[in-house]
Amino acid sequence: ATIGAKNQHLALYRLHFEFKKSRNKKYFCKNIWALKTLHYKNTSIAFTDTGKGTAIVLLHGFLENQSMWNALVPVLSQKYRVITIDLLGHGQTEPMGYLQTMEDNADAVHEVLSSLRLRKAVFIGHSMGGYVALAYAELYPESVKGLVLLNSTAKEDSPERKTNRDRAIIAVKKDYETFIRLSIANLFSEDNRGRLNDRIEKVKSGALQTPLQGIVASLEGMKIRKDREILLHTTAFPKLLILGKKDPVLNYEETVTQIQGTTLELVTFPDGHMSHIENESDLTKELLSFLKKI
């Protein structure tokens, strides 16, 4: 009972911060009323379900939560059924142990979609959300109608990147707040860090609601994820890769090589890793254009 009360208090605390940082408070309030939860392997999974039509599943990235899609959901839900999900250890979804693999997240997503009796969906994954979407496509290929990798990659971590994950785990355990503030700022292109300072501060506030256990478990899971570049070649469903030319996290030249010999579409924006903020209106247009073809 004590743990349940603590989790409930934490959830309300997070909601308060999400409301404060929301740009569309009318939609936020409506969205909160629509927030649902289910229990999967003794873990509470939070999600929303808005609109009617072809199902679109939106998967957020590391240190984010389903509220990152607040500007996009009202647009997409006019024509589509939009499901947003807080991944393991993020937002209002509880952590699941101290290692959360991309497969663990994919299974949790599948549990949500099964509860909604959805057989097929288009998946849009930002960064880590893209890794989860790829794991889902490998585990449940018959359930994927289309895939968008937003500021993401099908490649596994390089040895250097795996070392950096280990360093990140040490850093966040040592100084949680500093780690998060620096991590969020470094996701944006240098050109935008001054221009978008207010937005960046709001993202930091939201990220600071992510529990330490969720952060560590996700870093461990991303570090050991499989290379799934083969899926870009062997799957028949439509695929779109959206990258930022000045992405501080993903090297553009290296990442773009994975589309060679595939039918995957490529959209390149001139900015960083946070295209849903740095290129908000252009991203919406590109997504709507892609979805029309499915």
Give your account of this protein's structure.
With 294 residues, the chain is of the alpha/beta class. It is 48% helix and 16% strand. The chain is built from 14 helices and eight strands. Helix 12 links the parallel strand 7 (239-244) and strand 8. Helix 7 runs antiparallel to helix 9 (197-207).
List keywords for this structure.
alpha/beta; 8-stranded mixed sheet; 16% strand; globular; single chain
Write the layout of secondary structure elements.
Layout: H1 2-21, H2 25-34, E1 36-40, E2 43-50, E3 55-59, H3 73-76, E4 81-85, H4 102-115, E5 121-126, H5 128-139, E6 144-150, H6 159-174, H7 176-185, H8 192-195, H9 197-207, H10 212-223, H11 230-234, E7 239-244, H12 252-256, E8 265-269, H13 275-278, H14 280-292
Parallel strand pairs: 3-4, 3-5, 5-6, 6-7, 7-8
Antiparallel strand pairs: 1-2, 2-4
Class by SSE composition = alpha/beta
Question: What's the count of strands?
Answer: 8
As a whole number of angstroms, the C-alpha radius of gyration is 18 Å
**Biggest sheet record:** 8 strands, mixed
SSE pattern: HHEEEHEHEHEHHHHHHEHEHH
**In what range is the share of β-strand residues?**
15-25%
- Provide mean pLDDT, rounded: 92
Strand order of the largest sheet: 1-2-4-3-5-6-7-8
Helix fraction, binned, reads 40-55%
N-to-C CA distance: 47 Å
Low-confidence parts lasting 5 or more residues at pLDDT below 50? 1-8
What is the number of helices?
14
The geometry reads as: globular
